[in-house]
Specification:
The protein has 2 domains: about 5-70, Winged helix-like DNA-binding domain superfamily/Winged helix DNA-binding domain (Arc Repressor Mutant, subunit A); about 80-318, no CATH class. By secondary structure, the protein is an all-alpha fold. It has 12 helices and 2 strands. Strands 1-2 form a two-stranded antiparallel sheet. The protein has helices at about 5-20, 25-30, 35-45, 65-70, 80-115, 120-140, 150-220, 225-230, 230-260, 265-270, 270-280, 285-310; strands spanning about 50-55, 55-60.
């Protein structure tokens, strides 16, 4: 902007606020420009037909120019604070848009996982996509609706949509939890069985190595004279039989444990839901339901709020 344009804008601003044309000295005092320079511009504007001499002072050539200026909207240069606020608002909108997109995709995934159980995959996805997108955008759409009936219908449809979305999300997550628990139980049982089988194998080997004492005991029992003639050997046989019976007892207990190996018992001991159930005195499935319900509600409600913030009408202050 040239100095001439800047000075002319300042002349207009002064006239708009004070309802009179500024004198040379007033404008010089406000701008710091030397009076002779301002006089030179005033003369040029007179030649251009913008100003005229009214007595000993300059004034606008158009007598109604001041009234016209007051009717015009004064153009204000945005302050640094307003520009900074505008940048922050734009940044928040970008963050909200990313978060809304992620939450919407998560909600579509959970709804789709439920719908694909009862319908073909393509239709399950289309239904899930339509319900979640409408639910997320409902209040943004409502902000543009002019008819009260339309607004009421949008709210009703949003309530139906979010109820369906939350239900399918809870159902889908619950199914995933049950699958995880089943796989976890299977893995625990498999590992436990592997350990028991390994221990049983070792005990059977030990038993096979001690079986000769049983044959020796039978021989010495049928011929008591051998006990008298070989007392040391008889003591070794008795010790061997005692060790054999101990191994057989351990082997029997391990085989019973292998038969009784139960995933439920093992899982109960490690489940956080079982621990909360004991602490709160609430059934495990009730705790699981509410633990799944909270994130499902958060996903759908938060996506609706964020999409409404991003797509809704902007506040004029921003």
């Amino acid at each position: 902007m040239s100095m001439e344009e800047l000075l002319w804008n300042l002349v207009e601003d002064f006239a708009r606020e004070n309802k009179k044309f500024p004198s040379v000295f007033i404008l010089s005092e406000k701008t710091g420009v030397k009076p002779d320079v301002i006089v030179r511009f005033y003369r040029k504007w007179k030649e251009d037909g913008k100003t005229t001499m009214i007595g000993n002072h300059y004034g606008f050539a158009d007598k109604d120019y001041i009234a016209k200026l007051q009717k015009q909207k004064q153009i204000k240069i945005p302050s640094e604070e307003k520009r900074s606020r505008s940048k922050r608002f734009l940044f928040l909108k970008l963050v909200a848009a990313m978060a809304a997109s992620i939450l919407t995709m998560v909600s579509i995934h959970f709804t789709y996982e439920f719908n694909k159980i009862v319908m073909p995959n393509l239709w399950a996805f289309l239904l899930s996509f339509s319900v979640v997108i409408f639910m997320s955008c409902a209040f943004a759409i409502k902000s543009f609706a002019k008819d009260n009936f339309q607004k009421q219908v949008i709210v009703i449809l949003w309530f139906i949509g979010i109820s369906y979305s939350v239900f399918t999300a809870v159902s889908g997550q619950f199914n995933e939890i049950r699958k995880y628990e089943a796989a976890d139980k299977t893995e625990i049982v498999t590992n436990q069985k592997d350990i028991l089988n390994s221990m049983i194998s070792e005990k059977r080997k030990a038993k096979d190595n001690l079986e000769h004492w049983r044959k020796a005991e039978e021989l010495y029992t049928n011929d008591p004279q051998l006990k008298v003639e070989n007392p040391g050997t008889w003591r070794s046989i008795r010790n061997g039989i005692t060790e054999l019976k101990s191994v057989e007892k351990d082997l029997n207990e391990l085989e019973l444990k292998l038969l009784d190996c139960s995933s439920e018992n093992l899982d109960e001991n490690k489940s956080v839901y079982a621990w909360l159930s004991d602490v709160l005195g609430i059934k495990i499935y009730v705790i699981q339901f509410f633990m799944i319900l909270f994130p499902s509600l958060f996903i759908d409600l938060c996506s609706t709020v964020l999409v409404g913030f991003v797509l809704g009408k902007n506040n004029s202050e921003h």
